[in-house]
Amino acid sequence: MILLTVKDLTHHFGGLCALSDYNLELKADELLGIIGPNGAGKTTIFNLITGVYKPTKGSIRLEETEISGKRPNAITGLGIARTFQNIRLFSELSLLDNIRIAHYAKTIYHPLSALFQTDGFGSEETRVLNHSRELLAFFGLENEHQTSAKNLPYGLQRQLEIARALATKPKILLLDEPAAGMNPKEIENLMTLIAKIKKEFALTIIIIEHQMRLVMNICPRIQVLNFGTVIAEGNPKEIQTHQGVINAYLGKKLK
Fold first, then answer.
1. Integer Cα distance of 67 and 51 in angstroms
2. Rounded distance, CA 74 to CA 77, Å?
3. How far apart are CA 45 and CA 49, in angstroms?
4. What is the tens place of the pLDDT at every residue in 203-212?
5. Options 1.20.1250.20, 2.40.50.140, 3.40.50.1580, 3.40.50.300; CATH of 2-250
6. Which of 43, 180, 162, 89 is nearest to 34 (CA)?
7. Which among 6, 123, 136, 173 is least surrounded, fewest beta carbons within 10 Å?
8. How far are the Cα atoms of 66, 86, 90, 100, 106 from residue 151, in angstroms, in the given order?
9. C-alpha closest to that of 145 among 154, 155, 136, 153
10. What's the whole-number mean pLDDT along residues 87-114?
11. What pTM value is reported for the model?
12. Residue 253, pLDDT score
């Protein structure tokens, strides 16, 4: 089943074309890696899919629903969640509250229920609290639930951001450079964690990443962007030996 269809997606910043005629068909349960040099257009793809940018041209469909141009909160509600290249946690709030906040994209009670503390409000708040604790436990953070997010080690802050994205119960999870700033041991742990998340939550995942070891080891399918255009697509072995990819990364042809 095709879960996400992107057709002829193009985006300009003034006179600069950041992405040109990008196409993607993403099947349910896939794990896709997107790589490319800095400025290739990778994060622009995520920003277009999640509604941060409105495309200059093109279509984005989640199953049968056109989502291009919709607001980010609406897209989250439809089933797409993301993390960011630069961590965007609520640093002063506890781990538990960081995850609880994410649930409110899909709460099912009316604001008046919250005002008057109705039974519906109470049962929904209990559900949110229980699910938040379950997510913390999945990541091994249940004993830190009252810790401020800013006091977590960097690698665990990355994990908390993923947990917060999972709180929205997405169909598709977009991970924007999840290994950025991590040491080799943390990257090893992250690889294991992503595989565990994919299996446990039955997710379709797209990863943008500069850590080639991570991408080549966990992504069966990889796209390579350069100057806003896909220059190669295939499995890790095909990508590693593709002359266009080698040229893009090294800036010259191999002899």
1. 8
2. 5
3. 6
4. 999 999 999 9
5. 3.40.50.300
6. 43
7. 123
8. 40, 16, 11, 18, 28
9. 136
10. 79
11. 0.90
12. 46
User: Residue 81 and residue 79: Cα distance in Å, rounded?
Assistant: 7
- Across-strand partners of 6? 24, 60
Give, in order, the Cα–Cα distances in Å from 110 to each of 113, 169, 179: 5, 20, 39
Alpha helices (H) along the chain: 42-49, 72-78, 95-102, 111-116, 119-138, 154-166, 184-201, 212-218, 236-240, 243-250
pLDDT in tens, 27-38: 999 999 999 999
Domain ranges of the chain: 2-250
Separation between Cα atoms, residue 228 and residue 73, nearest integer Å = 26
Could you give the CA distance from residue 2 to residue 64 in angstroms, rounded to a whole number? 10
One-letter amino acid for residue 168 of the chain: T
Residue type, 151: N
